[in-house]
Amino acid sequence: MMAPVPVGAGLLAAAVLFCAGLTGVLVRRNVLFVLLSLEVMLNACGLAFVVAGAHWGQADGQVMYFFILTMAAAEMAVGLSLVLQMRRHFGSLDTHVMNRMRG
Amino acid sequence: MLRLLWLVPMLPLSGFATLIVGGRRLPRRMVSAVGIGSVALSTVLAAVVSVAFVRTTPPDAAYVQTLWQWMRIGNFAPAVAFHLDALSLTMMAVVTFVGLLIHVYSTAFMASEEGYRRFFGYMNLFVGSMLILILADNLLLLYLGWEGVGLCSYLLIGFWYKDRANAQAAMKAFFVTRVGDTALAIGIFLLFVSLGTLQIQPVLRSVSQYPPGTSLCTAAAALLLIGAIGKSAQLPLQIWLPDAMAGPTPVSALIHAATMVTAGFYLITRMHPLFLVAPAVLFAVAVVGAVTLLVAALSALAQHDIKRVLAYSTMSQIGYMFLAMGAGAWSAATYHFVTHALFKSALFLGAGIAIKACDGEHDIFKMGGLRRHLPLVSQAFLAAALTLAAVPPLTLTFNSKDLILNEVWLSDVAGPAFWTIGVVGAFLTAAYTFRLVFVVFFGPEQRRSESRVSRWMLIPFAILAFLGAVSGLPELLNAAFGIQSFYHFLHSAMPGPARDFNSAGGPWIFQAIYVAASLAGIGLTYLLYRRASGILGFVVSTTMGVRLHDLLTAGWGFDWVYQTLIITPYVRLARLNRGDFVDGVYAAVAGLSYGTHRVLSRTVNGNVRWYVGAISLGAVAVVGLVLVL
Predict the structure, then answer these.
(1) Is residue A5 part of a domain?
(2) Residue B458 sits in which domain range?
(3) For the segment B438-490, what is each residue's pLDDT rounded down to a tens digit?
(4) Which of A25, A27, A99 sits opposite B607 (nearest CB)?
(5) Residue of A5, B314, B399, B588 with fewest CB within 10 Å of its CB?
(6) In the 8-state DSSP scheme, what is residue B61?
(7) What is the pTM assigned to this prediction?
(8) Interatomic CA distance for residues B599 and B595, integer angstroms
(9) Is B368 part of any domain?
């Protein structure tokens, strides 16, 4: 049995991952990379759940990770199909092109 | 038989309801049948009621019929009740009878008009409202009729509403009479607050207890006088009447000659005990009448539109009625009302026929020579004109105007100065009337339409002209044989001060003066328009002549005065006040919303990354707040 990872270090890693993902969403203009960064953020959340579950010695955290994984898969399916549509309509993957709903 | 009284006003009103509710499905014949039938039945009933009233004069010389209680608010419980006495009986008979003849005339006159049903509906409503006004037992019901008449006037002047000028004339009539109506309403409030009742007879009884000149009586009488001035088109609220000629000619005959404009006269006569205890106001009545009769008669001399001549003539003749009332000669005024209703509606109907014969031409100088084309019409018109000018051979002396002038001479209020104005007015009356006759029916022939005059227009016209001409007969009998008749019937109900000439020869000298004044007027116009028209052309060609002519044609520039003194400043003030404080509050609310909208809509820039950033910042802020607090 491996020595448990310290909670602080695990949560810190999750926070770093989350911020990296958020930065990617904010900085990237290519919608494909935005989706990738979103995935990173989701996984950072999952990591935080797992670390917390391990810390309390309960399975809830890992169950939660399965839900997040399922949700991420569904989201990705919808997201990728939207990306396809976007490519077809605008001929580009740049999010700045899709600004017709500005006020 | 007197119990049938309530049907007299109700029949025309139900005719109105039938025509308006009946809708477009009613064929024209049905419309005519309902429109005329209701008024005809009403006329017959009015005659029956009148005969019954005269044969069995009820106690107090009045018959009151209460239909139902209108409303009850505390002590204030006006009833829908009708009051019949000599005055209201006379008015009722004239309104129904003249109204009936004009309805018959209208079937032919309006035959080719669209809105035939609407026309008869309004006419019925008018007759009904006028009858309510006349028969009302309390001032509130009288006011209902008063406003109903005003409404019909508006609707009928603007009957051809597609023409903007007509609609404006209708608005003008409505607004100007509204000034008087407001004064009347305030007068009624004042009487109610002071006396606690609106029943006319109790009001008059309690008012006559006051000593003359009490401020309450003077104020109430003055307010009623303003109301009467507005409705009867007297100075200075007369400006609506000439423009009201924009309506169809039968409307002019019915509303603006025979009946509606006499509502003011009726109001004062009905309330005459109130005016007797307000001598100052009574004197004002005489002054208003005298000034109006002169001013209007002079304006009539210069008009080119045949209907405007008659309109100014109507104002002038009602001026005579006001003058008579100012002298306290209620019966003479009523008598003049009857004759005026007959001959003036006849003149209007004749003018309508002449206008039709000239393809809708209103300018008298473009008509000319109708005598040969329409011999019967011109004879009847001549008869009516002679009645208006009060010429003895045809119209049987003792014309109502002479009665008025006698009374004015004898009264201590009015006296010789007013009498002189009246005689000058008689001269002018004859002059403008025969100017019309000479120009329209004599003179060179002009173009005409070939269509024949309908029987249904000719017969009512002839009847009215004939009756107008013989309306002096009762007084002739009185003077010659001492047979007491119509005048004494009126006098018994409204006793004025008993006055008579001292000497036996007195009346005849005065009679000679009146006849001479009328003949001089006719002679002068004959000279100017038939014999030596060069003189007239010369007078009009001088600068002074042109100015005078323009002034008279414009009705002494009253329209201009009101335009500069009231309308223009009012419009300016309204413009100035457009952005006042209250508006500012609402404008600020609107401006704030708009500004916020502009700021917030900046954030919706369509950039996904921007949204994500905003959401993140928001989340951080919320979490931070939770942690800190």
Answers:
(1) no
(2) 278-531
(3) 887 777 776 665 667 777 878 888 888 788 777 767 666 666 665 566 666 76
(4) A99
(5) B588
(6) G
(7) 0.76
(8) 6
(9) yes
